[in-house]
């Protein structure tokens, strides 16, 4: 019934003593199975290639525009069916379930030590039978509205989207993953059905299962499932994004104790074949600039200008590539200037081999430790599957990189003219000295 | 869990961890928590983490750890019931995963034992510049607690709940005391810790024999007068008090704290683990299903039980105008569970979920260690497998009985000024 295995391969890495199977089904679904000896639990992740940046698509000759937050909204609603709630079904068999939406994907996950077959049935069933009504959509608008408000109180979240808003003209990465209270008010059952028809198709989904599980178990579950049989997947449409930034800075206020600084660099988005390598290079540059082994970090730390939470992050996908530095600081302008100076210094003086080796080791260690958690392996396999990258690719890139590669990357990345700085300042006289009333 | 009592008030616990790519060793110093030394013990771990006699410079130590594939050295503190715990851990790749065959594990032990037992002292005190820098960081941390509204609300509720009890001593110390923590005072706190603390070492995936030998060498070099662990405590039941704090936030936060009035017995603890899961610990819990999903009164609403203080907290994110109704709904759910009946299906589902979590404890280094250390603090030393049997035997009446012990002590609402119901 479309669940026949067309291709099967075993992938193995001696570097981490790890192997997994990749199966491609006739209906287009990609399946990964990673049995892990010594573990009790099974972790599964069903990832759908539909995230918050997917706001327009073409299907069956028709173009559809979506309100901000629809992928996340759908994530909430997919747990419901006419027969009840998937959370209830998981609860009956002792599994723990969750789901999350990012810029590029929606993931449904469970962990279970017993009744794994039944848990797989619930997981596959929950994405196979979408069911939305006016009433359930209206109820969810209230719940998600509260979630949106909760994130509005998070300084890190506010900084992130304020930086993206400075950098991007059109790319939907600048909008909150959950949308706004206003944008989700436009969502109807029809909107949601249009999205499941377009994106919840087998060739746009990946199932990854890791831990105490066998290939036979997973294939049997797929045989029992009634997955959609390969309808036309929506073609994602992107508005062109200029290379230039929108504006170089912004200021916000909220109830925090000291300012928070975010500096974003808008980089040229990379094609699928070179994206991971550039992400690794950007990660390495972050470590080389402000990691805790660096002279800049030490100077700013000792001067009380940054704390151990000051860090770099990389955001990359189809149509966007951004390097973000952020953290609390009482002197945002000083820290911004120091970071830009350090970038210029490294560019002029080069990167010492020893510094490169240390930062590469840190990232390599992180990558290897990712293979000891079934939950992490399932999530990574699903993410790699959607991007069509092997799970071991990051390890191999790190092992092969040289200091010269990083020097060359720095020539292109982290240019001041493509950067924006956002400062979130404490509300004047508020936030630290609130009065408490006993009733 | 293999446990070995060593001389001098120390013990070594070896936990199975063969399947992992990393190994981990933790040294815990446990001593009675005191108000006067709270700030020194809050500062001590962050100063220790900067370096030790064998590697005093913070950046040099960071580079050493980076060369060991980003091995993580962490020093932290917590207040567990009436005890102060200072924990120093190192975690890193096992030797066989090094790119160039480096001997990693021996280096981990050097760094860990150096940090715990050979601090970098200048004339018998911690380095003044390092102490000043870390005092400023701690000051910022204390002043910045408002940044995380959810944690801040819970912390404010705890302050009202515990009052002057040792269990309520602040993990991060007190702003007012910070100036008084001199390099010398910090060295005295360190000396007190090494002299009087019970020492519990946990080894996961590292050479336990080597750890034991090094530990005994270090302890034998100290004058030791180790304290006994303080038993679990409980706040007495009292008339419920409500507090409202205005703050500039979009979403309100509500925290309710309940006490059992006395420490729970071992059997009651097992029942309470299940009862807390059923009340507000699972996505299928009463709080999630009824207060969040059915009544849409909050975005999150969950509970946590502290076995060392027999207290139960409910933490929720509410729209300010719904706060009073959310509180009533939460109280209603607790009363309904305590009064019973609890359906057999609901009980079995909760047991299944809880047993699943128990069985998965062995799947991560951190959960194995967390479980073992909790058992050490309780003095029970049970494996998750041993607890499984007791969970299977629990009845619906057991859960009702244990929940009926709890009464509301403190309600704390963080909200926009003038936005709460009835204000």
UniProtKB/TrEMBL annotation, chain A:
<dbReference type="InterPro" id="IPR011249">
    <property type="entry name" value="Metalloenz_LuxS/M16"/>
</dbReference>
<dbReference type="Pfam" id="PF05193">
    <property type="entry name" value="Peptidase_M16_C"/>
</dbReference>
<feature type="domain" description="Peptidase M16 N-terminal">
    <location>
        <begin position="63"/>
        <end position="171"/>
    </location>
</feature>
<dbReference type="InterPro" id="IPR050361">
    <property type="entry name" value="MPP/UQCRC_Complex"/>
</dbReference>
<dbReference type="GO" id="GO:0046872">
    <property type="term" value="F:metal ion binding"/>
</dbReference>
<feature type="domain" description="Peptidase M16 C-terminal">
    <location>
        <begin position="186"/>
        <end position="362"/>
    </location>
</feature>
<protein>
    <submittedName>
        <fullName>Insulinase family protein</fullName>
    </submittedName>
</protein>
<dbReference type="InterPro" id="IPR011765">
    <property type="entry name" value="Pept_M16_N"/>
</dbReference>
<dbReference type="Pfam" id="PF00675">
    <property type="entry name" value="Peptidase_M16"/>
</dbReference>
<dbReference type="InterPro" id="IPR007863">
    <property type="entry name" value="Peptidase_M16_C"/>
</dbReference>
From TrEMBL, chain B:
<protein>
    <submittedName>
        <fullName>Insulinase family protein</fullName>
    </submittedName>
</protein>
<dbReference type="Pfam" id="PF05193">
    <property type="entry name" value="Peptidase_M16_C"/>
</dbReference>
<feature type="domain" description="Peptidase M16 C-terminal">
    <location>
        <begin position="181"/>
        <end position="351"/>
    </location>
</feature>
<dbReference type="InterPro" id="IPR011249">
    <property type="entry name" value="Metalloenz_LuxS/M16"/>
</dbReference>
<dbReference type="GO" id="GO:0046872">
    <property type="term" value="F:metal ion binding"/>
</dbReference>
<dbReference type="InterPro" id="IPR007863">
    <property type="entry name" value="Peptidase_M16_C"/>
</dbReference>
């Amino acid at each position: 019934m479309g669940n026949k295995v067309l291709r099967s391969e075993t992938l193995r890495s001696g570097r981490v003593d790890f192997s997994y199977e990749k199966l491609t089904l006739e209906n287009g679904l990609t399946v990964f199975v990673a049995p892990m000896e010594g573990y009790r639990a099974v972790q599964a992740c069903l990832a759908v290639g539909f995230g918050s940046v997917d706001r327009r698509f073409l299907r069956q000759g028709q173009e559809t525009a979506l309100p901000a937050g629809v992928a996340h909204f759908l994530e909430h609603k997919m747990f419901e069916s006419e027969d009840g709630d998937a959370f209830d079904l998981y609860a009956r068999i002792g599994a723990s379930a969750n789901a999350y939406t990012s810029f590029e994907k929606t993931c449904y996950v469970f962990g279970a030590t017993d009744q794994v077959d039944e848990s797989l049935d619930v997981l596959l069933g929950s994405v196979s039978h979408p069911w939305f009504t006016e009433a359930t959509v209206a109820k969810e608008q209230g719940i998600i509205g509260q979630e949106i408000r909760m994130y509005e109180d998070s300084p890190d979240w506010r900084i992130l989207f304020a930086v993206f808003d400075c950098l991007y003209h059109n790319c939907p990465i600048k909008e909150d993953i959950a949308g706004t209270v206003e944008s989700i008010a436009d969502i109807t059952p029809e909107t949601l059905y249009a999205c499941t028809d377009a994106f919840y198709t087998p060739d746009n989904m990946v199932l990854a299962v890791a831990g105490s599980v066998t290939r036979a178990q997973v294939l049997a579950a797929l045989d029992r499932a009634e997955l959609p049989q390969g309808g036309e997947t929506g073609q994602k449409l992107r508005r062109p994004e200029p290379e230039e930034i929108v504006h170089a800075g912004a200021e916000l206020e909220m109830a925090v104790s000291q300012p928070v600084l975010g500096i974003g660099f808008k980089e040229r988005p990379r094609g699928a074949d070179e994206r991971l390598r550039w992400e690794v290079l950007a990660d390495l540059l972050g470590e080389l600039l402000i990691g805790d082994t660096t002279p800049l970090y030490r100077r700013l730390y000792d001067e009380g200008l940054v704390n151990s939470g000051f860090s770099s992050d990389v955001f990359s996908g189809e149509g966007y590539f951004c390097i973000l530095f952020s953290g609390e600081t009482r002197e945002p302008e000083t820290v911004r200037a120091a970071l830009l100076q350090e970038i210029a210094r490294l560019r002029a003086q080069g990167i010492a081999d020893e510094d490169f080796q240390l930062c590469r080791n840190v990232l390599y260690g992180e990558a290897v430790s990712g293979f000891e958690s079934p939950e992490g392996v399932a999530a990574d396999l699903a993410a790699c599957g959607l991007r069509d990258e092997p799970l071991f690719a990051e390890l191999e890139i790190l092992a092969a990189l040289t200091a010269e590669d990083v020097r060359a990357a720095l020539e292109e990345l982290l240019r001041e003219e493509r950067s924006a700085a956002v400062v979130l300042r404490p509300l004047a006289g508020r936030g630290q000295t609130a009065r408490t009333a006993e009733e | 869990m293999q446990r070995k009592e060593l001389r001098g008030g120390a013990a070594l616990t070896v936990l199975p961890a063969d399947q992992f790519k990393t190994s981990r060793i933790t040294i815990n110093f446990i001593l009675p928590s005191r108000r006067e030394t709270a700030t020194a013990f809050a500062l001590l771990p962050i100063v220790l983490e900067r370096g030790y006699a064998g590697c005093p410079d913070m950046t040099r130590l960071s580079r050493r750890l980076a060369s060991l594939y980003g091995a993580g050295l962490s020093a932290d503190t917590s207040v567990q019931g009436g005890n102060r715990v200072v924990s120093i851990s190192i975690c890193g790749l096992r030797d066989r995963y090094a790119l160039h065959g480096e001997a990693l594990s021996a280096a981990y032990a050097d760094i860990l034992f150096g940090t715990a037992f050979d601090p970098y002292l200048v004339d018998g005190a911690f380095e003044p510049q390092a102490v000043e820098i870390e005092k400023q960081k701690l000051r910022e941390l204390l002043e910045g607690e408002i940044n995380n509204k959810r944690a801040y609300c819970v912390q404010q509720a705890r302050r009202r709940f515990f009052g002057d009890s040792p269990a309520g001593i602040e993990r991060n110390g007190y702003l007012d005391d910070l100036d008084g923590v001199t390099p010398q005072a910090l060295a005295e706190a360190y000396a007190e810790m090494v002299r009087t603390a019970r020492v519990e070492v946990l080894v996961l995936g590292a050479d336990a024999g080597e750890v034991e030998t090094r530990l005994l060498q270090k302890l034998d070099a100290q004058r030791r007068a180790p304290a006994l662990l303080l038993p679990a405590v409980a706040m007495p039941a009292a008339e419920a008090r409500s507090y409202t704090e205005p703050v500039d936030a979009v979403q309100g936060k509500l925290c309710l704290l309940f006490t059992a009035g006395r420490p729970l017995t071992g059997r009651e603890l097992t029942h309470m683990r299940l009862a807390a899961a059923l009340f507000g610990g699972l996505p299928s819990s009463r709080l999630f299903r009824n207060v969040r999903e059915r009544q849409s009164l909050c975005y999150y609403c969950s509970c946590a039980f502290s076995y060392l203080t027999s207290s139960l907290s409910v933490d929720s994110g509410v729209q300010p105008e719904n706060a009073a109704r959310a509180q009533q709904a939460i109280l209603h759910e607790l009363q309904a569970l305590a009064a019973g009946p609890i359906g057999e299906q609901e009980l079995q589902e909760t047991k299944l979920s809880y047993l699943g979590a128990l069985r998965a404890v062995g799947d991560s280094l951190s959960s194995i260690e967390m479980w073992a250390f909790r058992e050490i603090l309780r003095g029970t030393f049970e494996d998750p497998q041993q607890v499984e049997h007791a969970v299977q035997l629990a009845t619906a009446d057991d859960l009702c009985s244990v929940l009926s012990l709890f009464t509301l002590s403190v309600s704390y609402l963080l909200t926009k000024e003038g936005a709460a119901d009835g204000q």
